[in-house]
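[step 3/7] fold_predict: job queued, chain A
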Amino acid sequence: MVMTSDSYEKKMKQQANTIILEFSGGDSDDIRDLRRGEGKIFQRIGRTIAQLQEQGQASENVQPIIVITKKKKSKKGLLD
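[step 4/7] structure written:
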């Protein structure tokens, strides 16, 4: 299926109830806990959404999109 740029732009527009949260520094155990709906990152997401709702920046039926970035391991040589 080929998408024209018009249909692609419409598809990629952010919905009114969608927010994007970016967290860095999560290790594999934290990410596994998040997938189960528990853990440190899950609690941070809940607190962040609650703060945004208190400030009036997010609606009650908000749909978060979570992005977790990991620091890339540096490749070291034999003598580094």
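[step 5/7] annotate
The mean pLDDT is 76.
Residues 27-70 form one domain.
exit 0
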